[in-house]
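Weekly modeling sync, notes
Attendees: S.R. (lead), two postdocs, one rotation student

Agenda item 3: backlog of single-chain predictions. S.R. asked that every request posted to the team notebook include the full sequence so nobody has to chase files. The rotation student volunteered to paste the first one in as an example of the format we agreed on. Action items at the bottom.

Example entry:
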Amino acid sequence: MGQHVTLRHICQTFMIFMAWVTKGLYLEVSGPAMIDLKLIYNTNYESITRSVAGRGAGGFLGALIGALIVDKFERQLDLCIAIGTTIAGICIALIPHVPTTGHVWMLYFMIGCVSNAVNMGGTRIALEIWKERSSIVLQLLHMGFGVGALTDPLICSPFLAVIENVQKDDMNPNPHYHVIKESRAHLAFLIIGIFTCCVAIPFFLFQLTAKRSTVVKETVPSTSAKAKSFKEIFNPATYANGNFYYGLCALILLFFIFFQCCRWRKTFCNICKNYFRRRFPS
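Predicted structure, as returned to the notebook:
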């Protein structure tokens, strides 16, 4: 049976849910604000798309860093979530203010890195608290990401630029648009950044009060309970009963499954949102 769940555990679970909400906010805000970022940096969609793609590269590095953090610093997971969420909040607030799209790429790279680290740390805490009852909690956390992603357009809508398409003719062979209302998307990014930083504050408090409310772990008989070395952690054979090639093939297959299911879906959704916003401006 799992351990007794206290009020602290419920508060931790709720704040992890809120951390997932902020992940939905700062990872998906580029969708409704894509046109405004194009206007702010006076560039094309290709350049903005490449900048936002930095979060994918950062996510790959964040997966490695998160794995090490969860394995080596299990007593400081609340602190790791707090620091990661704070960094994400600062980076997302700075995106409309940096001078070039190259800086935007770097900010999104950091956001992708810390978001994956927060993901692993929060999942580990939820599993330790709820144990065999953690399945519904994990589903709730992922629902939090959806809540944040759905809230993005509501936050951004009052601050987005209003544009009018100008059809091409003999005088204007290239179609363009006229800006009716200037973009104030920086305020939407600032609101999301401040809210994200506020969500990080309780995790600092959880870490400071951890000594007074330690988690009592179940004692497991130690058959071969020695800590894994750095080499064993990244060796595919460790997770496939010693079969290196089987573990490597499974890892590659999972990589391509997540790549196809997540990256192309998000790219297609962003293309659709921006296409219809340009075709039917409000």
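Discussion: group reviewed the output briefly. Residues 244-279 form the longest helix (36 residues).
Action items: rotation student to repeat for the remaining queue; S.R. to check formatting next week.
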